[in-house]
Specification:
Layout: E1 9-10, E2 17-18, H1 47-62, H2 66-77
Antiparallel strand pairs: 1-2
Helix pairs in contact: 1-2
Protein backbone atom coordinates (compact mmCIF):
# COMPACT_ATOMS: atom_id res chain seq x y z
CA UNK A 1 0.00 0.00 0.00
CA UNK A 2 1.42 3.37 -0.99
CA UNK A 3 1.36 6.19 1.47
CA UNK A 4 -0.70 9.21 0.37
CA UNK A 5 1.16 12.50 0.09
CA UNK A 6 1.47 14.49 3.31
CA UNK A 7 -0.01 17.53 1.63
CA UNK A 8 -2.32 17.69 -1.34
CA UNK A 9 -2.50 20.51 -3.82
CA UNK A 10 -5.99 22.02 -3.77
CA UNK A 11 -7.91 23.52 -6.68
CA UNK A 12 -7.76 27.31 -6.40
CA UNK A 13 -11.32 27.53 -7.73
CA UNK A 14 -13.25 25.00 -5.62
CA UNK A 15 -10.80 23.70 -3.01
CA UNK A 16 -10.98 20.02 -3.96
CA UNK A 17 -7.76 18.10 -3.23
CA UNK A 18 -5.84 17.09 -6.36
CA UNK A 19 -3.81 13.96 -5.71
CA UNK A 20 -2.45 13.21 -9.18
CA UNK A 21 -2.57 14.23 -12.84
CA UNK A 22 -6.03 12.73 -13.33
CA UNK A 23 -7.43 15.27 -10.85
CA UNK A 24 -5.87 18.30 -12.59
CA UNK A 25 -7.45 20.08 -15.53
CA UNK A 26 -6.29 18.41 -18.75
CA UNK A 27 -4.10 16.08 -16.65
CA UNK A 28 -1.60 18.93 -16.42
CA UNK A 29 0.06 19.04 -13.00
CA UNK A 30 1.02 22.68 -13.53
CA UNK A 31 -2.61 23.83 -13.77
CA UNK A 32 -3.99 25.03 -10.44
CA UNK A 33 -7.55 23.99 -11.32
CA UNK A 34 -9.23 20.60 -10.98
CA UNK A 35 -10.83 18.84 -13.93
CA UNK A 36 -14.30 19.78 -12.63
CA UNK A 37 -13.60 23.51 -12.76
CA UNK A 38 -12.46 23.63 -16.38
CA UNK A 39 -14.72 23.37 -19.41
CA UNK A 40 -13.75 21.25 -22.44
CA UNK A 41 -12.62 24.43 -24.22
CA UNK A 42 -10.16 25.14 -21.37
CA UNK A 43 -12.05 28.05 -19.80
CA UNK A 44 -12.69 28.16 -16.07
CA UNK A 45 -16.27 27.81 -14.83
CA UNK A 46 -17.80 30.89 -13.22
CA UNK A 47 -18.09 31.73 -9.54
CA UNK A 48 -21.84 31.11 -9.69
CA UNK A 49 -21.31 27.68 -11.25
CA UNK A 50 -18.75 26.69 -8.62
CA UNK A 51 -20.97 28.00 -5.83
CA UNK A 52 -24.02 26.18 -7.18
CA UNK A 53 -22.12 22.88 -7.52
CA UNK A 54 -20.75 23.19 -4.00
CA UNK A 55 -24.18 24.08 -2.56
CA UNK A 56 -25.80 21.12 -4.36
CA UNK A 57 -23.11 18.82 -2.97
CA UNK A 58 -23.74 20.11 0.57
CA UNK A 59 -27.50 19.59 0.19
CA UNK A 60 -27.02 16.03 -1.05
CA UNK A 61 -24.30 14.91 1.35
CA UNK A 62 -25.23 16.80 4.52
CA UNK A 63 -28.98 17.19 3.94
CA UNK A 64 -28.74 20.96 4.38
CA UNK A 65 -31.43 23.42 3.37
CA UNK A 66 -30.47 24.99 0.01
CA UNK A 67 -30.23 28.50 1.49
CA UNK A 68 -27.89 27.34 4.27
CA UNK A 69 -25.84 25.36 1.75
CA UNK A 70 -25.46 28.42 -0.49
CA UNK A 71 -24.30 30.53 2.47
CA UNK A 72 -21.70 27.92 3.46
CA UNK A 73 -20.53 27.58 -0.15
CA UNK A 74 -20.09 31.35 -0.48
CA UNK A 75 -18.13 31.46 2.78
CA UNK A 76 -15.83 28.62 1.71
CA UNK A 77 -15.25 30.09 -1.74
CA UNK A 78 -14.32 33.47 -0.27
CA UNK A 79 -11.24 31.82 1.25
CA UNK A 80 -9.97 30.37 -2.04
CA UNK A 81 -7.36 32.15 -4.18
CA UNK A 82 -9.58 32.41 -7.25
CA UNK A 83 -12.32 34.26 -5.36
CA UNK A 84 -10.64 35.83 -2.33
CA UNK A 85 -10.67 39.37 -3.68
CA UNK A 86 -14.30 39.24 -4.77
CA UNK A 87 -16.34 37.18 -7.20
CA UNK A 88 -15.85 38.35 -10.79
CA UNK A 89 -18.78 39.96 -12.57
CA UNK A 90 -20.53 37.63 -14.96
Amino acid sequence: MTKPPDKFIHCITCGVPMRDAADHADGDLTRPHCRGCVRPDGSIITYDEVCEHMAEHLVQTLDLHPTAARTIAEERLSNLPAWSAKPPAE
